[in-house]
UniProtKB/TrEMBL annotation, chain A:
Residues 6-254 form the ABC transporter domain. It comes from Halomonas stenophila. PROSITE patterns: ABC_TRANSPORTER_1, ABC_TRANSPORTER_2. The keyword Protease does not apply. Keywords: ATP-binding, Cell membrane, Membrane, Nucleotide-binding, Transport. GO terms for molecular function: ATP binding; ATP hydrolysis activity. Pfam families: ABC_tran, oligo_HPY. The keyword Signal does not apply. It is a peripheral membrane protein. Belongs to the ABC transporter superfamily. This is ABC-type dipeptide transporter. It catalyses: a dipeptide(out) + ATP + H2O = a dipeptide(in) + ADP + phosphate + H(+).
From TrEMBL, chain B:
This is Peptide/nickel transport system permease protein. Keywords: Cell membrane, Membrane, Transmembrane, Transmembrane helix, Transport. SUPFAM superfamilies: MetI-like. PANTHER family: ABC TRANSPORTER PERMEASE PROTEIN (PTHR43386:SF26), OLIGOPEPTIDE TRANSPORT SYSTEM PERMEASE PROTEIN APPC (PTHR43386). It is found in: Cell membrane. The chain crosses the membrane at residues 34-56, 106-134, 146-166, 172-189, 227-248, 283-304. CDD domains: TM_PBP2.
TrEMBL record, chain C:
Keywords: Cell membrane, Membrane, Transmembrane, Transmembrane helix, Transport. The chain crosses the membrane at residues 9-27, 100-118, 130-156, 208-230, 265-286, 309-337. The keyword Transport applies. One of its GO terms (cellular component) is plasma membrane. It is a multi-pass membrane protein. It holds the Pfam family BPD_transp_1_N. Belongs to the binding-protein-dependent transport system permease family. GO terms for biological process: transmembrane transport. This is Peptide/nickel transport system permease protein. Signal peptide: none annotated. Residues 94-334 form the ABC transmembrane type-1 domain.
Length: 340, 318, 348
């Protein structure tokens, strides 16, 4: 049994004009110490997925169904008090923008100590000592002085280090990092990512890394999911997906990487843009942008327009695509014919 | 989000009416019963005030129609009332209903006039301060700060007292309407100036202003033709609130004897004239005009709240 | 800290300078001391020599400097009406106004913070809707009308009997609609003397009853504004990333609301609200008029009616000083509370 198992997660936003489904049928799992990447364009539902794990989605969002099992315990429907014992303690989070994540009117020390004291019965003095040790681990210069400083006295990179230290304070099982380096200067992005990776490995902490940067995912994670319009459309071992993407969208994403373009020519791009969630097209949500709806022989693959694709397994990967399903079917049929 | 989509959906050739029909403004209005009721009440009050000469049973400015013997009659639901005077009469024997209708007219004229005055002053100063910056900005904003820290009411009272001292009581009463418009306009321009300045500063950094400057357009043209239109939605929102404030300010000045004379009463001076009779039990002379004033101001404020929620401009705080 | 103080002090002096120029201009143009000193019968030539002797023909700047030099020592001349130094007249009326403002401020702070916070934490609760509805009605009622209604209800008393009085529930409902009246609504009663001309209403229960209605009506102006301000700020803060992060850390809701969120909410509230509390002094003119509260506001209105120019000028200067002091204090408190403001004056 995996440490974290998410099945058929269904998250909706209750708007006046009716519910909008932000996550549909999201399934994934995470083993102890494993690093999972979630990629997709902005608005694909990556952050919603991250926040719904700890039931932290802002109103009017709510979890409409599915199951989130963590260490054998079902988190959906768990009371706030019980959930609070998990938040920051066994599963902690790192947010996107370190400039906004720390409370501007409380010192670094206060914000670390309160987290420790919310989960453990320890004195402020002991909590400060632990905080100090964590600040040392994230390689902050003169950590002693930092404890009594306010966030605005620290640079963005330093603040993200503090936030990583807070995430590690209680030696959690999982860290959910929502675009942890996007808001940082390019020069320190790699530094922070390396630090996070190193600490996760050192403490055997599972990592859910949410990003739109395929490069980072391929370097850091062992498995990945690709999300599109609130659904997982492909998942599997990172290396296999990067080397041999099945879903046309994933192929497009990888082709769009600058290193995939021929020098001197235009960058590859996926035509069109992701539909808004309240305006999804019928069938496969990606079909209006997909180059494979029309078959090589010019016939239209009608299922793409009419029917939402289910998952098909190809090797260690799963993809939700009619085209892939057709291909697998075609490969399998001759083999069966030969057998018979 | 919705406003942008509807803007895209409506073609550039769509008429103003079509654009209004498709707009988010109308959509949210249809879904907000409070806004609908407020607008209806507001329209009824304004119509009643505008049509006062035709609606009112008598003309309170015409001394010949006043019967002093019929003074302090109660409204119709109380014993001792006279069916000729639906809402009773005031201390001078004027029909209270007529006086309220005429009074609401005066209050509304001053309210809207004063807001036009503040808007004219405030928009000009705000544009200047925001666009020119530097010393002009520092001077105007410091002035606005000082005025606001004194509170607009205090400024209005002082300016009103000065005008009264300079012109004398009789002249002041004779020209009370334009003077009050001027006084309240002078007292409240900082609100506009700050709002406009804040949005000018926000707009100034945007590229279209740079583009206009590169094209060699004059500062005045850039300010009025390019920046001002983009600051309209916050101006629109504070205008509603300011009309309500101006009506209250006028009432306050009248209550202090610095506003409309009793011969040509506004709602405020009606409340004041009735206050002296409160102890003798004639509460209606004060409280009925008071109720009308509160309802008028309340519906304007409710409409302002609704507008702010819908247009959601970044208003200057503080 | 010192640099900050000096900067604030300089700003305050600048404001006082502007106010004093305005005040002096009023005095110069409207007040004619000769008229007050001598009667109508004195011939014009004699007036002219007097004018020359008193320096009234000197240039504006010279006269202003003379005015300013005296003003610094709180010498604004004699009141026409009271025939005594204006500062003494003001000093006699000041405590009444300050007590009224203090009582209202207490009411505003004590009520607006819990109500504002509650309606931000539970924006959809019916009680929050009631608070917001009442507050917008409150904004729409002019102060003097609130005061009048309070007098009608609690001083004069109201008895309504629209329900059948012979049934139990009818009598009960009628009882709810009926107020006894009898609350003191005019003047200060017999305040307890403290020192000199300073008398207080806070020292006795009877004194407090005189304070109740005026203080409530004065508070009624700012209370809705404060509630709406605190609610709006708190709602915004609750949306912030740092509140979400605190939740993700597993901090208890109580600590999030009352430490993380409230502390950030109060920063803008201190700046906006502090200035508003200062302007309460202006609104005392209205409340004091309705309640005949013998404070500065009532005195000022009286001075306007009797064209007591020196008293008007003194009032403006004193009120200006009060505003400047409150604003400076507010800035100082803000600087102390907000860690991102460097009071040291060193570049951050």
């Amino acid at each position: 049994m995996s440490l974290l198992e998410v099945n058929n997660l269904d998250v909706r936003f209750a708007l006046r004009r009716g519910d909008v489904q932000a996550l549909r049928d999201v399934c994934f799992r995470l083993d102890r110490g494993e690093r999972l990447g979630i990629v997709g364009e902005s608005g694909a539902g990556k952050s919603v997925a991250a926040f719904s794990l700890l039931n932290l989605i802002a109103k009017p969002g709510y979890i409409a169904g599915g199951s989130i099992r963590f260490d054998g315990q079902e988190l959906i429907g768990l009371g706030d008090r019980a959930l609070r014992r998990i938040r920051g303690h066994r599963i902690s989070m790192i947010f996107q923008d370190p400039m906004m994540t720390l409370n501007p009117v409380l010192t670094i020390g206060e914000q670390m100590v309160e987290c420790l004291r919310a989960h453990r019965r320890i004195s402020t003095r002991d909590a400060r000592a632990i905080s100090l040790r964590k600040l040392e681990q994230v390689q902050i210069p003169s950590p002693e002085a930092r404890l009594d400083q306010y966030p605005h006295e620290l640079s963005g990179g330093m603040r993200q280090r503090v936030i990583i230290a807070i995430a590690l304070l209680l030696d959690p099982d999982i860290i959910i990092a929502d675009e942890p380096t996007t808001a940082l200067d390019v020069t320190i992005q790699a530094e922070i990512m390396a630090l996070l990776l190193e600490l996760c490995e050192e403490h055997n902490v599972g990592l859910v890394l949410i990003t739109h940067d395929l490069g980072v995912v391929s370097q850091v994670t062992q498995r990945m999911l690709v999300m599109y319009a609130g659904r997982v459309i492909e998942q599997g071992p990172t290396r296999e997906i990067i080397n041999d993407p099945q879903h046309p969208y994933t192929q497009g994403l990888i082709n769009a990487l600058p290193q995939m373009a021929t020098p001197g020519s235009r960058l590859n791009q996926i035509p069109g843009s992701m539909p808004s969630l309240n305006n999804l097209s019928s069938g496969c949500a990606f079909h209006p942008r997909c180059g494979f709806v029309t078959r090589p022989d010019d016939s239209t693959r009608q299922a793409c327009v009419d029917q939402e694709p289910g998952f098909v397994t190809s090797g260690n990967c799963q993809a939700a695509c009619h085209m892939v399903a057709e291909m697998i079917e075609r490969e399998r049929l001759p083999a069966e014919e030969q057998d018979s | 989000m919705t406003t942008t989509t509807s803007a895209i959906e409506s073609s550039p050739t769509a008429s103003r009416w079509e654009r209004l029909r498709d707009s988010y403004l109308l959509y949210s209005f249809k879904r907000d019963p409070i806004a609908q009721v407020s607008l209806a009440v507001f329209i009824v009050l304004v119509a009643a005030a505008v049509l006062a000469p035709w609606l009112a049973p008598m003309n309170p400015y015409d001394l010949a129609q006043i019967d002093i013997l019929a003074s302090e009659l109660p409204p119709f639901w109380i014993d001792g009332s006279d069916p000729a005077y639906l809402m009773g009469t005031d201390a001078q024997g004027r029909d209270l209903l007529s006086t309220i209708l005429y009074g609401a007219r005066v209050s509304l004229i001053i309210g809207f006039g004063a807001v036009a005055m503040q808007a004219a002053l405030g928009v000009c100063f705000g544009l200047l301060a925001g666009y020119l910056g530097g010393r002009v900005d520092a001077f105007l904003m410091r002035l606005a700060d000082i005025q606001l820290s004194f509170s607009t009411l205090m400024v209005a009272i002082v300016v009103g007292a000065l005008f009264k001292a300079i012109f004398g009581g009789a002249t002041y009463s004779a020209y009370a309407v334009p003077l009050l418009v001027l006084i309240i306009g002078l007292a409240e321009w900082p609100q506009y100036a700050r709002t406009v300045r804040a949005s000018v500063l926000a707009e100034k950094g945007k590229e279209y202003v740079d583009a206009a400057r590169v094209m060699g357009l004059s500062s005045r043209r850039i300010m009025f033709r390019h920046i001002l239109p983009n600051t309209l939605s916050p101006i629109f929102v504070i205008s509603t609130v300011q009309v309500a404030n101006a009506i209250i300010s006028e009432a306050a000045l009248s209550f202090l004897g610095l506003g409309m004379p009793e011969t040509q009463p506004s709602l405020g001076s009606l409340i004041k004239s009735g206050f002296d009779y409160l102890q003798s039990g004639s509460w209606w002379i004060t409280l009925i005009p008071g109720l009308v004033l509160v309802i008028l101001v309340l519906v304007i404020n409710l409409l302002g709240d609704w507008l702010r929620d819908v247009l959601n401009p970044r208003l200057y705080k503080g | 800290m010192i640099a900050f103080l000096i900067k604030r002090l300089f700003h305050a002096l600048l404001v006082m300078f502007v106010i004093s120029v305005i005040a002096f201009a009023i005095q110069d143009n409207l007040g004619d001391p000769i008229q007050q000193m001598v009667g109508q019968s004195v011939p014009e030539s004699e007036r002219e020599t007097l004018r020359e002797e008193l320096g009234l023909n000197d240039p504006f700047a010279v006269q202003y400097l003379r005015f300013a030099a005296k003003a610094v020592q709180f010498d604004f001349g004699y009141s026409y009406v009271f025939n005594e130094p204006t500062t003494e007249v003001i000093l006699r009326h000041l405590p009444a106004t300050l007590e009224l403002v203090a009582a209202s401020t207490f009411l505003i702070i004590a009520l607006s913070i819990p109500i504002g916070v509650y309606s931000a934490i539970k924006p959809r609760a019916w009680l929050s809707r009631v608070f917001m509805g009442v507050s917008i009605i409150g904004i729409s009622i002019p102060v003097f009308l609130t005061a009048i209604v309070l007098i009608q209800l609690f001083a004069i008393g109201v008895s309504w009997s629209p329900f059948p009085a012979d049934t139990g529930w009818g009598a009960w409902l009628n009882g709810l609609l009926t107020t006894d009246g009898g609350m003191p609504a005019y003047g200060r009663g017999d305040p307890v003397p403290v020192i000199g001309t300073w008398e207080t209403n806070f020292a006795s229960l009877e004194g407090l009853t005189y304070l109740v209605l005026p203080a409530i009506s004065l508070a009624s102006i700012m209370l809705p504004l404060f509630i709406r301000l605190i609610r709006a700020e708190m709602l915004e803060v609750l949306q912030s990333d740092y509140v979400k992060f605190a939740r993700a850390k597993g901090i208890s809701p109580r600590r999030i609301y009352f430490l993380h969120a409230l502390k950030n909410t109060m920063l803008p509230v201190i700046t906006v609200g502090g200035v508003q509390i200062g302007t309460l002094v202006a609104y005392t003119i209205l409340t004091e008029t309705v309640f005949q509260w013998p404070g500065m506001g009532l005195m000022f209105l009286d001075a306007i009616e009797r064209s007591d120019i020196p008293l008007i000028v003194t009032y403006l200067m004193i009120v200006g000083l009060i505003f400047v002091i409150t604003n400076t204090l507010v800035d100082l408190i803000y600087g102390l509370v907000n860690p991102t403001v460097k009071l040291t004056g060193k570049p951050a």
